[in-house]
């Protein structure tokens, strides 16, 4: 967004040039070999490991940590990649504090879990830095599969299918592959073009061709894909953004938070990005937190997250909420927007009752020269003929849609929880079912 008479407070270069490099550096530095061995030694190597059960992709956590402890991080990486081929990115963005680390016995006993996420990153980075790919492609089957969407679900599906010997063509609407990993993750969580490097590394399995700039419904027809391929997997994500349903939301200083984050990710010089002095982010999920924290890192003076329900209902984890607070972001709960004004947003306090949420007559106003909407995304351009459930593509436990020969997974499919690691699991499992169906 450029400066304009309607948005005089939105300017670039609010900070000294050196501050941007520091602010957007890796916020969780990698462990070195000694630190990793020390961290691994804290693991009890539980036989009935609750951390493994808590991992959506069922990584054998005690095994890979033992392999690190014994000085074989390459073997640890293979253990991780067996279950999660995008284990490198998941080590950076997974809410481990809600998953494996929350279930860790050390967490229950001492309040400090084994650093599973950082150990996973250490192992996967060790292998990826060397450019080694731990899997070999099986003998070609002669079967071809179309994967629509080069995000976590699509990439995981494509890799597993290629490993089984199938030929895979991945189509994506955007200029780069990676999906949410490339365009939707906070810049300080995935630095140095890691998402692109991970895709390049994944493709070393062979048998996968990626075609970018190809959108379903615009450049691709589902019926044509069915004719030219033996199976189709849809991992198209959620392209739409929910509306505020408040007067003034079409003003020039109001943006979708996902677009703001995408622009951040694709801009190498953060000092060129305009940001407001007073920023308001509406929503309570990870997108809201990422937009708010990065607004502060760009130089916004006052950043406020406003959420309509209680803090315990926010989908952003407690860890991420604390991170936002530490970055200087204010969080206001039980408030909903009623009008976007010139330089401000008016909110009404809300009350939660057993029958739902009620907007009260009590209001307040926040200064805002920039407003970001982060109130959830919707499926955009769902292919005709597919049954929907809850606004998403209906699938069974194997990822099969209502149309034979078409599978789906990730954020666009029903039943998931909109996590990168869950998308990987759904893409991987759908690939196994596709393979079984094709070889039957």
In summary, what is this structure?
The chain is of the alpha/beta class.
- Please tell me how large the radius of gyration is: 22 Å
Strand % is: 15-25%
Percentage of residues assigned to helices:
25-40%
Coarse structural class? alpha/beta
Could you describe the largest sheet, including whether it forms a barrel?
Answer: 5 strands, parallel
Shape: globular
Give the CATH topology of the largest domain. FAD/NAD(P)-binding domain
What does this structure look like?
- The protein is α/β, with parallel strands linked by helices.
- The protein has three domains: 33-129, Orthogonal Bundle (Fumarate Reductase Iron-sulfur Protein, Chain B, domain 2), CATH 1.10.1060.10; 144-239 and 379-439, FAD/NAD(P)-binding domain (3-Layer(bba) Sandwich); 241-376, FAD/NAD(P)-binding domain.
- The chain has helices at 17-23, 33-40, 50-54, 61-69, 73-83, 87-93, 100-103, 105-110, 116-129, 152-163, 180-183, 194-202, 222-228, 257-266, 286-298, 318-326, 420-439; strands spanning 144-148, 167-172, 208-212, 231-234, 240-241, 254-256, 278-282, 302-306, 330-332, 335-341, 344-353, 356-367, 370-373, 377-378, 388-389, 392-393, 406-408.
- The strands form five sheets. The protein has a five-stranded parallel sheet with strand order 3-2-1-4-17, sandwiched between helices. It has a five-stranded parallel sheet with strand order 6-13-7-8-9.
- A hairpin with a 2-residue loop joins β10 (335-341) and β11 (344-353).
- α15 (286-298) packs parallel to α16.
- The longest helix is centred in the last third of the chain and has 20 residues, at 420-439.
- It starts with 16 loop residues before the first helix and ends with a helix.
- The model is unreliable at 1-6 (pLDDT under 50).
């Amino acid at each position: 967004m450029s400066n304009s008479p309607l948005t005089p407070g939105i300017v670039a270069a609010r900070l000294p040039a050196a501050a941007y490099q520091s602010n957007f550096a890796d916020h969780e530095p990698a462990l070195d070999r000694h630190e990793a061995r020390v961290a691994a030694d804290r693991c009890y190597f539980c036989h009935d490991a609750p951390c493994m059960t808590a991992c959506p992709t069922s990584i054998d956590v005690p095994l890979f940590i033992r392999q690190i402890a014994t000085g074989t991080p390459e073997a640890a990486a293979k253990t991780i990649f067996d279950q999660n081929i995008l284990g490198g990115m998941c080590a950076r963005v997974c809410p481990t504090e809600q998953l494996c680390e929350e279930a860790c016995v050390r967490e229950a006993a001492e309040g400090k879990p084994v650093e599973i996420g950082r150990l996973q990153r250490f192992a996967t980075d060790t292998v990826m830095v060397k450019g080694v790919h731990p899997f070999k492609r099986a003998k070609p089957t002669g079967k071809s599969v179309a994967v629509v969407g080069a995000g976590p679900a699509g990439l995981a599906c494509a890799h597993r299918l290629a490993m089984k010997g199938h030929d895979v063509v991945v189509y994506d609407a955007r200029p780069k592959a990676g999906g949410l990993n490339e365009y939707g993750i906070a810049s300080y969580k995935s630095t140095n073009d890691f998402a692109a490097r991970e895709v390049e590394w994944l493709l070393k399995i062979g048998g996968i061709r990626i075609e970018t700039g190809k959108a379903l419904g615009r450049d691709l027809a589902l019926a044509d894909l069915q004719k030219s391929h033996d199976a189709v997997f849809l991992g198209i994500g959620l392209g739409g953004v929910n509306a505020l349903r408040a007067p003034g939301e079409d003003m020039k200083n109001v943006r979708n938070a996902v677009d703001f984050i995408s622009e951040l990710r694709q801009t190498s010089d953060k000092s060129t990005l305009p940001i407001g002095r007073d920023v308001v982010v509406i929503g309570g999920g990870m997108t809201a937190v990422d937009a708010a924290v990065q607004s502060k890192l760009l130089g916004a003076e006052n950043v406020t997250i406003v959420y309509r329900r209680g803090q315990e209902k926010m989908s952003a984890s407690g860890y991420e909420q604390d991170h936002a607070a530490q970055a200087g972001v204010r969080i206001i709960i039980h408030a909903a927007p009623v009008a976007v004004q010139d330089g401000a947003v008016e909110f009404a306090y809300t009350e939660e009752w057993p029958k739902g949420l009620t907007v009260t007559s009590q209001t307040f106003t926040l200064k805002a020269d920039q407003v970001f909407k982060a109130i959830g995304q919707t499926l955009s351009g769902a292919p005709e003929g597919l049954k929907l459930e809850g606004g998403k593509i209906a699938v069974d436990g194997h990822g099969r849609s209502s149309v034979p020969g078409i599978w789906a997974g990730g954020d666009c499919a029903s039943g998931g929880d909109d996590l990168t690691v869950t998308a990987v699991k759904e893409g991987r499992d759908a690939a196994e079912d596709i393979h079984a169906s094709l070889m039957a």
